[in-house]
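A protein record in our archive is deliberately plain, so that people and models can read it alike. The record that follows is passed on verbatim for readers who wish to inspect the format.
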Amino acid sequence: MNNKYIYQFEGSSGMQDMRYIMKMFRCGFRTIGNAEVKSVTELSKAADGTAGTEALEYRLAGGYSFIIRSSAFEPKIEVTVSVPDSSGDHAAETGKRICEDLENIIYIDNRLGYCCE
């Protein structure tokens, strides 16, 4: 099961906020939604390494994954979360925790200096 979420960033700092968020995801996390991060793969990057669409794929324990992609032209991030096909409540609950963690990370106050440098 796949769920897609789109996050828009308003104001004059919207593009800067989006780039900062993508930088946080490139730095990596150990867990998302209590699921261990198994791997992070960069799917695309501009040839010059600066502007352009960025996309990262996170593979998590238990078969969960998500792709986070920035827009090259507007302050927008798209996240597609994949939950393994399972009729169990555990899979749905873990998927919900992953989505909640992603939203918390995306909306974190950038002034906290969370990102790696």
